[in-house]
Amino acid sequence: MGLTTVSYCRTMGDLEEISQQFQNKLSSIQLMLDLSATDFPKQKIKKLGEEILELQIILEEFDKCVDHQKVQLQQLKELEKLIQNDLEGVQHMKDNIPAHIPKKTSPVKENTDGGNQNTATDVQPAQAEHVKKTKRGFVREMHYITSQEYESIPQYMKGRVSYEQLNAVVESINTAIRAKYKILSQPMKALNIHARNLQQRFKNQESKDTKGQFFVVEDDILEFTQMKVDKRFQGILNMLRHCQRLREIRGGGVVRYTLN
C-alpha cells in the first residue's frame, strides 16, 4: 500500500471504506508485531514505520471526511428548514384561497354570425354571467374586495357581513351590469318586448353625468339577480363606497351606482 491513501475521501467517498482501510492497516501492524516478537531486524522496523505513517495519513483523511460530512449535515438541516417554511407557506395559501379572485377582463370580439337571436334576447342571470362584451367596447366590472380592504372597513360598517358575503354582492352587481349592457348592445329588432322595454328604461336613466360610465340602479339588481334590495344591501353599498368601488349619481328620482 503506497502513500496514495491521502485521496481516500475523494476516490472512495465513503467513511465506511476508509474505516475498513484503517482496520486493515491496524491488522497488518499487529501481524508484523506478532511475527517479530523475538527477532525484529532493521528492515522490519523500517517497514513498520512506513505502515504507521500510512496509518497516520489515513487518520488525517478520515478526520477531513468527518468534517466534510458535518458541513453537509448542517447544510441539509438548513435546507430542510427552508423547505419546511415553504411547505407551511403553501399550505397557508391553500387553506386561505379566497372564493373570489380579482381578474382582468380583456376585450373580445362580438359574435356577429347572426345566430339564434331569440336566445340572445331572453337575458337570464345564468346567461348574463358569460357576457363580457358589447358593441361599444368591453364591459367594465367591479373588482373583488381583497382581504386587506375588507379588514380596513370599520367594524360598525361591516356588522355581521363576512368577506365572502361582500364579494357575493360584488358578483351580483357584475351580473346585473353584464346583463344590462348586453341588452343595450342589441339592435331593437333583435329584442323581445320585455327586453325592448328594459333597453328604453336604461337609455332614459342615462344623463350627461353618466356618459362613458357603467352603472346600475336598484331595479337592475332586482331584474337580473336573486339579491334583495333591503337595508342590509344598502349597508353593503356603504362598504363598497368605503372601498372606492362605486359612487352614486342622483337625478330625476333615480340613484345610479356607478363603478369607480
TrEMBL record:
<dbReference type="Pfam" id="PF07160">
    <property type="entry name" value="SKA1"/>
</dbReference>
<dbReference type="GO" id="GO:0000278">
    <property type="term" value="P:mitotic cell cycle"/>
</dbReference>
<dbReference type="GO" id="GO:0005876">
    <property type="term" value="C:spindle microtubule"/>
</dbReference>
<comment type="similarity">
    <text>Belongs to the SKA1 family.</text>
</comment>
<dbReference type="GO" id="GO:0031110">
    <property type="term" value="P:regulation of microtubule polymerization or depolymerization"/>
</dbReference>
<dbReference type="GO" id="GO:0051301">
    <property type="term" value="P:cell division"/>
</dbReference>
<protein>
    <recommendedName>
        <fullName>SKA complex subunit 1</fullName>
    </recommendedName>
</protein>
<dbReference type="GO" id="GO:0000940">
    <property type="term" value="C:outer kinetochore"/>
</dbReference>
<feature type="region of interest" description="Disordered">
    <location>
        <begin position="98"/>
        <end position="132"/>
    </location>
</feature>
<dbReference type="GO" id="GO:0007059">
    <property type="term" value="P:chromosome segregation"/>
</dbReference>
<dbReference type="GO" id="GO:0008017">
    <property type="term" value="F:microtubule binding"/>
</dbReference>
<dbReference type="InterPro" id="IPR042031">
    <property type="entry name" value="SKA1_MBD_sf"/>
</dbReference>
<dbReference type="InterPro" id="IPR009829">
    <property type="entry name" value="SKA1"/>
</dbReference>
<feature type="compositionally biased region" description="Polar residues">
    <location>
        <begin position="113"/>
        <end position="124"/>
    </location>
</feature>
<dbReference type="GO" id="GO:0072686">
    <property type="term" value="C:mitotic spindle"/>
</dbReference>
<keyword id="KW-0175">Coiled coil</keyword>
